[in-house]
Amino acid sequence: MELGIRSEAPDHTLASRLAWITGLRLGLLILLLGATATLYLGGELDRYPVSLRILLLTIVAGFLQAMAYAAILRRGKRLPALAWTQIVVDQLTWTAIVYVSGGAASGATSFYALTCLVGAVLVGQRGAAFAATVGVGIYSLLCAAFHFGWVHPPADQNAAGYAIGTHELVYPLLLNTLGVTVVALLSGYLAERLRLTGGALAAATARAHQAERLAVLGRIAAGLAHEIRNPLGSITGSIEMLRESKGLSDEDRRLCDIVEREARRLNELVGDMVDLSKPRPPRAEATDVSALAREVVALAANSARGTDVAVRYEGPSEPALARCDGAQMRQVLWNLVRNAIQASPGGSTVIVQVEPRDAAVMLSVDDAGSGVPDDVGSRIFEDYFTTRTHGAGIGLAVVRRIMEDHAPMGAKLAVERSVHGGASFRVTLSRDVTGLRRSLRPPGV
What we know:
The protein is α+β, with helices and mostly antiparallel strands. It is built from 13 helices and 8 strands.
């Protein structure tokens, strides 16, 4: 899973749109059935026996198709394929109606354009273009079939009313092709504009909700920072003084370590809440990522004492300069390492690796924990979401926010399974080649 450039999300509203289109199709079929029944009751069956039978068969087939569509919709599977199939089947259905209602000059050719609207509603621009291509193609094939004698007008229809000659076919063919194309272009354009507007509205709504959550969190964090950090400072200082007493047993010292570790964890939780609630725009600068990683590893190794988890750095000793905010990237790495320590079993090792590349610096944190379950992989960076029994789900949310702020600088964040079986969080930063050249320039140059 990658943060920054996201793949196209599945369309969760397609099912409802297919249901609406299927309902409208049933309504249209009922109207056609009523019109056909009126002709039948009016004695037109004796006059147009072949045409009415073809029309009735087409309507019955339409009802059967609607039943099949409803069954597929109920299962909720392969809905995109159903949308494309509906477009093709609709154009074939209109062709049957065009055939019995005048051929190339039939007024029913406007139904081809109607399917372009349906395609735009279901699929968007591609659906409208596909519907136009299929409709014009089938209509052109029908005109060619009449012209070359492959298909003849219904036996009960006046053959003189059907356009068969070249000059008779050119005008309706060009006119209908132009009409269908214009409708497809307009409907596709409107569908695309609606999609973009809806996406922008959804993003704006999400930002508003995020701002509201941050405002609430900011008020809570401000109170916590004062009400919790002061007592924690007193607790930590008292424990340090108590540990220096000579009369303490090994069990007493172990209990002191537990109290100190838990107090430190509470202090880090308050710090995470403050960081999440008060975002600061990043300041882009040349940052030595390898030095930053070594510093964090040293601090994390000291913090991990008592958990029996080792923290090791792998990477170059020389500078690896990247374009980012050094303080914020240090927070990202610290949160990732702390998360890896908490997820790792005793006796395992958390590996922090820095890998300079041509145009980027790769920074990874690998643990030997249970990894990220597939069903929660897309949620681990959400505020207050956690898979552990302890923890508030804030550390990785801070990581996500900082990385999103760094996205204009080319920064990316991804999580995958590590070679040790746990999780591997990978940070990609744009390499600062100019800063590297300055750092390697001889003095006085």
